[in-house]
Amino acid sequence: MSKVVILGIDALDAALLKRWRNDLPHFSRIMDEGYFAPLESTMPPDSIPAWVTIYTGMQPWEHGVVDSMDYLDIRKGAQAVDTGTFKGKTFWDKAGEAGKRVCVVNPLLAYPVWPVNGIMVNGPVFVTGEAQAFPEEIVRSTKLPELGGMVDFPDRKDLGAFLERTAQVTREQARFGLDLLDREDWDVFFLCLLTLDRVMHFLWRYTDPEDPTYPGKNPFENSVKDFFMLLDSIVGKFADRLSPDRKLLIVSDHGHSRRPTRALYINEMLRREGLLKTPQGKVPGISPVAIVEKTKTAFLRMMHRLDLEDWVYKIASVIPKEKRKSLKSSSYAVTREESLAWLSETGGGTSFGGVEINRALCLARGTDYEALRERLIELLAPLTNNQGERIVEFARKREDVFTGQNVDKYPDVVFELRQDYGVDRTLFSGLLGKSSTHRKVSGGHSKFGTIMLLGSGVTPPGEKPHISQVYGTIMRILGLE
Description:
Blueprint: E1 3-9, H1 14-19, H2 25-33, E2 35-40, H3 47-56, H4 60-63, H5 91-97, E3 102-105, E4 118-122, E5 132-134, H6 137-141, H7 159-183, E6 188-193, H8 195-207, H9 223-239, E7 246-251, E8 255-258, E9 262-265, H10 266-272, H11 288-305, H12 309-317, H13 321-329, E10 341-343, E11 352-357, H14 359-365, H15 369-380, E12 392-397, E13 413-417, E14 421-424, E15 432-434, E16 443-446, E17 448-454, H16 470-477
Parallel strand pairs: 1-6, 1-7, 3-4, 3-6, 9-14
Antiparallel strand pairs: 2-17, 4-5, 7-17, 8-16, 9-15, 10-11, 11-13, 12-13
Helix pairs in contact: 7-8, 7-9, 8-9
């Protein structure tokens, strides 16, 4: 029976740790003396379902939180996930029920906080707001760092200030966590640091010479590595506080790499196949919707080519929220009640996605639902680019990939594209194109995060660990499994 200090580091990528290990002495020590392995994430590898899986040990189709987060949509007013799906089921809840003392700081999505056998402190995610603590006296007696957050959307001119502020927030969260760690000999201590993910989303292209939008030598070319070094120093401070009965567990929700630079226009494919319908104009042969879509696409491509994407977002910021969302998703151009299928929002514009089917319309028209799913798979599977290379890694019925009571929360057909291709809702265009938003958000999630364990006498999850095994690893450390 041992105690555990858990550092959750959003987007801590195992391959990048290996690449820079000579400059990361504390991470390197754990690689040499402890357990280190890539950690397979959820499908899709998104922070929202992945962290809930870490908390509960349940797959997304079991806990039911399958939402995806698109950094291009992070704006004030976004809605956080309902904690009712996992509140009381987390490793800190179960440990507390077994009499273990817990201290939990900044777990993504777990807000508002709730009573635990110890301390829980957090802030709202995707929106600005006040941090909360249980017990409440923590808020009154301690200077709290910025918690939750994730509302940053910096322009290019703001990147320096963004980096500086993000690093400072990280240091303050670590300082706060260390202060709480020293207050009591906790059985479970958990601090979640979300800032690395933000840095890589916005700064990736400045650090990756193989990125087609890499600007050449620039002030930010070492920004991601520098942030890894900052986290390494924080890991060292927590490792220094280990005692013989304390283990250190480091875990990430997914990895990180270049966001897709090329796009596959799924909705356009569905439109050409007669499965997706668009509003018809009053004048035969003239479609106002098609004119708007083509104009929007041409404008975005021109702004991308001229390296003026920041101006697009400045213009968009003055458009009312609902109209802006409609323009981005092209929802105004899709008549869903008359469409048999359309691109799902699952995956947040990455290489992972799905197609939703209008089952009510299938029933009304006498269209065989299973036959339509087979047709969609047959359309997707053989897609190739101009070089004859296959674009789709797999396309399957959701039940062939997921199981459990919440499987119907996934699209009817799910797919994964090549890593350099992402999904896009563009209509009235070719089927393939370049991402017109890559300069704005150039880093994206990848399948494999990281799990690290320092301390003897604990059985690690195995050679090819999955994110759903983290919960069990914690329980074994605590002697509760």
